[in-house]
Amino acid sequence: MRIEVDLDLCQGHGMCELEAPEVFAAKMDHVEIRDANPDESRRAAVEAAVQYCPTQALRLIEDDE
Ligand code: SF4
Fold first, then answer.
1. 51 C-alpha to center of ligand 1: Å?
2. Which residue ranges form the domains of the chain, and what is each CATH number?
3. How far is residue 8 from each of residues 5, 12, 24, 27, 58, measured CA to CA in Å?
4. pLDDT at position 62
5. Is residue 2 a contact partner of residue 63, using CB atoms and an 8 Å limit?
6. Residue 63 Cα, ligand 1 centroid: separation in angstroms?
7. Which residue CA neighbors atom 5 of ligand 1 most closely?
8. I need a surface site. Which of 13, 29, 55, 62 has the fewest CB within 10 A?
9. Is residue 65 pLDDT above 90, yes or no?
10. Phi/psi-derived region of residue 14, left when phi > 0, alpha when psi is between -120 and 50, beta in every other case
11. Tens digits of per-residue pLDDT, 33-63?
């Protein structure tokens, strides 16, 4: 899987970092993706991050898409 972030939408709330700190690092007003191709073992945390992002800036893309 692969993660994409729309930085026009991201406001740096940091919900994603709370859910998956090994994948996301929230900065002042945007997020840094620490691991754009996370291991399957992180799927639940990444899906939660995508779900709870208040601006829907995150997208999880499957490898075969
Ligand atoms: S939760 Fe969404 S808006 Fe907040 S830092 Fe993460 S991607 Fe950006």
1. 10
2. 2-61 (3.30.70.20)
3. 9, 11, 17, 14, 11
4. 95
5. yes
6. 22
7. 12
8. 62
9. no
10. left
11. 999 999 999 999 999 999 999 999 999 999 8
C-alpha 6: how far from chain center: 10
Interval between CA 40 and ligand 1 midpoint (Å) = 21
Nearest CA to ligand 1 atom 8: 10
Q: pTM of this prediction? A: 0.93
Give dist(CA 48, CA 24) in Å, integer.
12
Predicted pLDDT of residue 64: 85
Gap from CA of 39 to ligand 1 centroid (Å): 20
